[in-house]
Amino acid sequence: AAERLSLSLVSAKKAKTRAAALRPLPYAPNRSKVAKALEMLKTSLPVFDVIWLASGLDYGRGKDFAARLRKLAANLSVYHDAPEWNLLALTPPFPQSSKLRIRILRSTGARARTGVIRALADDGRYLGDTPFLIPAGEPGTETEIALPLQLRNAISRLFIMNERTAAGIVLLDERSRRKAVGLVTDNKQTDQPLLAPLYYVQRALAPTSEITGKSDIAELAAQDNAVIILADTGRLPATAYGPIVKWINRGGMLIRFAGPHLAASADDLTPVRLRPGGRALGGALSWDTPKHLGAFSKSGPFAGLKPPAEVTVTRQVLAEPSLELDSRTWARLEDGTPLVTAQRRGKGWIILFHTTANASWSNLPLSGLFVDMLHRLLALAPGLSAQASENDAAQNASAIRTLLAPSQTLNGFGELAKPPPDTRPLPLRDLARAVPGPRRPPGFYGPPAHLRAFNLLRKDTVLTALGPVPGAKIRSYIAPGQEDISKWFLLAAMILFLLDGLILLILTGHLGRNRGLAMLPLLLVLAALALPAKAQTQTNDERAIVATRSTHLAFIRTGNESLDRISRAALSSLSAVLTRRTAFEPGPPMGVDPERDELVFFPFIYWPISASTPPPGPAALARIDAYMKAGGTVLMDTRDQQRALPGLYGGASGPNSEALRNILEKLDIPPLMQVPPGHVLTKSFYLMHEFPGRWQGGALWTDRSARDRVSGILIGSNDYAGAWARDNQGNWLFPVTPGGMAQREAALRAGVNIVLYALTGNYKADQVHVPAILERLGQ
Which of 372, 395, 393, 369 is nearest to 382 (CA)? Predict the structure, then answer.
């Protein structure tokens, strides 16, 4: 039975103290229980007010709860955040190839929202950041977390930075990780792929695993594969036996399938001893009929799976009877003979399917049960980097148990901590459909070597706003800001001054009483017009004064709020570096709209190219073209190094590079070349050989004919702004790939060289600087 909520009356002082000590909880409220408690209170306290501290979410029956409160309360006040402060939430990710696809949700909001998702390992190690943008009016967005496989598999939790709620964090376990699986193949081409030994295995594992197929078993064992699968291999050759044994002892999982070769000659890399030959069922010389699968053990890895009635086995390899056979059997046929056996070896596993991996001995590989069984086995594989202890490893065989004990749970601020004392175990069968609550908060459940993530939200969760509450006073948690009321005092003073003058004229006889009263409305209108108007938008003249008062770096405003914010943060960071390291002290960066702003005041303009923003119009292109010819420098950055700029003049390219190509076709662009060794850009301040940004490897292009002048155009693809940008706290907004802080420093130096090149031109090309440069090269 559900626990009943009891209410007690306390003094206002105690109520205030308790309200100040309130802390959020990591699950949805039980509003029905609260309403029932208030209805019971109504019997002893007929009249009372209700102050509802709401989260702004509907939770499915918000309108019904609000209606019940209106009936109960003499006065109802509802607190919730304004739409621009609505919470952001994450749903569990969808594994896709080498990326994780994740949804960011919000309940309401007409304004665009930006943020950063940070990935951490289970030891708190930083793995990477991913920015996102929720467009104005949209309930959410999707983004991809692209990391190398080893880093991706190390992710333990994802959270939205500066969003301290349980909804803003997602926990990941083995089910979200793509295991590296090696398939031992014979490399023979066949016209009938359905008969290939591992065809169905590959189809079953491809969506969730990184699969490598090789004929050399030793080579697969030398790689970081979590699982190696053999189909009907008898005795392993001596060159493969030693490496595979070492690999298993280090934590690898070897999955073998039976067949004629294994039935004829088996080695000791099987969980149990096998009888020579095979058992045929339903053949012309057999009295037995094909066997169905028996029920799975409730304590084994296949617990909860139901064998379909249509799955049958016509042949199998039999195990020799032994004392340990029963404990090593994970699946049986209906007559009790083993179908899947397993044995712990070192830190790893040896698992044997006593039938084939194709449909020659059984139709199991044709069923959905086969896919589920393989996924359950992959979930048991810790991989070579898990470093599981022997005790944890011993628990791993039965890690998927009926009940999972709580290990760590989330509090309302999205922080992992020890579970509360009254936290109950979570039944495995309920893991996919259970709803977090007071006795089962979200968190990690299960043994340390095989934790299961229990998240607050599901993949299909939709956040619904509470909506208006008729008859209630709506209040905000945010204290109202200050408002300038001086204008109203000025208006009052003006009205009193005019009234005083009007009364004086009437009393002295200079103005008749009726005529004076008729002028009163006119005087009030004049007083209202005397109010100070709101500050007008900065005129072009004022903008020119600001731009010329000091030298500023500039960026093209694209109209994409998130992209423009990154550009401003990047140039602010680069300006600070220039101020600390050089004699150049630029002012704050300025955004420019080439459609209407004058560009000549800026020596350097950064232009992030995006296929998602409207292309510049003819007036903007004409202004940019004139700016470059007048001596200004524009850095066009496509930010897609991995696909972009070998294809500058042809070949495959990304969407941003296509957008760049369309822009270049409308400008008077001279022939371009990659920055060659010895170019002024390589020595304008630092001695450099390449110009990395957030990415590495993309070339920097410049005007081929700009020998005695500054190139008006530079084109790159390494996402320079992504490497330069910091937030208000000084944290880097994006990780750099793959070189870490060394690459970050090189990106900052590249920015310094580019800006000083735009300022000083070919100054460092003069021969007078050659001795100093040679001396630095010698150091």
Answer: 393
